[in-house]
Amino acid sequence: MLELKNINAYYGESHILRNVSFTIDPGEVVCLMGRNGVGKTTTLKVLTGLLPARSGQMMFDGADVTKEPTDRRARRGLAYVPQGREILPHLTVRENLQIGFWARSDKPNGTVEKNAFDEVYQLFPKLTQILGRPGGVLSGGEQQQLAIGRAILSNPKLLLLDEPTEGIQPSIVDQIEDVIIGFKNSKRFGILLVEQGLHFAARLAEKYVVMAKGAVVVSGKSNELSAEMVKQHLTV
Q1: What is the pLDDT of residues 10-39, one digit of tens each?
Q2: Are the C-beta atoms of residues 117 and 153 closer than 8 Å to each other?
Q3: In whole angstroms, what is the distance from residue 17 CA to residue 19 CA?
Q4: Is 146:135 a contact under the CB 8 Å cutoff?
Q5: How big is the CA angle at 48 (ends 44 and 54), to the nearest 5 degrees?
Q6: HSE (side-chain half, CA atoms, 13 Å) at 195
Q7: What is the DSSP secondary-structure string of the chain?
Q8: Helix crossing, 93-102 with 140-153: angle to 10°?
Q9: 118's torsion region: left (phi>0), alpha (psi -120 to 50) or beta?
Q10: Rounded mean pLDDT of 205-224?
């Protein structure tokens, strides 16, 4: 479903990503790992088109999207929940969710809309209590639930989650973990999860990709992560 081939990206003249290559199969959960500053978030920005790749190729759902703009990639089914969540602060929770639904590539009817919103409310019941509240006054945990719910409403084929547990209270972390496990079991869409914490990632991901200094240094099945790799590249 997703294949990166020798992606190179720059900020100005600084070479940030160096020949990054990996694949994600349909319905697969992959964890992109590594210490701070190794290029994980930059990789997600390249995937979404927010940062252009200077060289290399990106294939998504059978199409070459290397040169496509962000909105076209979103229409193809690429959904992104960034670290900052990017909740629109002056819009209500309901309005923020509606934006996600409008991003769908299909032409849904009223029944589809109701079912889609009902699913989000089942996953994150707290949202039903705060639908009229502005996004900017929500707690970090509430914003993260809203951001994931909004992304799900776009009916993605691949969901990109950039450190979804960062700065979140433990009860919400547990809830987000349960939601991701549910997606993993359903195989409805793929997930690329950026996480520094080994234990959280190991419980959720089927495959890992470890980065260091802007390059992929090792990858494989999550149950094959060795103690030496953890010590060298990861945060326990």
Answers
A1: 999 999 999 999 999 999 999 999 888 899
A2: yes
A3: 7
A4: yes
A5: 80
A6: 23
A7: -EEEEEEEEEETTEEEEEEEEEEE-TT-EEEEE-STTSSHHHHHHHHHTSS--SEEEEEETTEE-TT--HHHHHHHTEEEE-TTTT--TTSBHHHHHHHHHHT-SS---HHHHHHHHHHHHHH-GGGGGSTTSBGGGS-HHHHHHHHHHHHHHT--SEEEEESTTTT--HHHHHHHHHHHHHHHHHTSSEEEEE-SBHHHHHHH-SEEEEEETTEEEEEEEGGG--HHHHHHH-B-
A8: 30
A9: alpha
A10: 90
> Quick one: pLDDT at residue 236?
47
Predicted confidence (pLDDT) per residue in 157-182, tens digit = 999 999 988 888 888 888 988 999 99
Residues β-bridged to residue 32 = 194, 209
C-alpha closest to that of 148 among 130, 114, 171, 175 = 175
Mean pLDDT score of the chain, rounded to an integer? Answer: 90
Contact 150, 100 (CB under 8 A): yes
Is the sign of the CA dihedral 153, 60, 191, 162 positive or negative? Answer: negative
Environment class of residue 35 by beta-carbon count within 10 Å: exposed (0-12), middle (13-18) or buried (19+)? middle
Greater model confidence, 64 or 108? 64
* Residue 189 one-letter amino acid: F
Q: For residue 154, what are its two tokens?
A: 């776009």
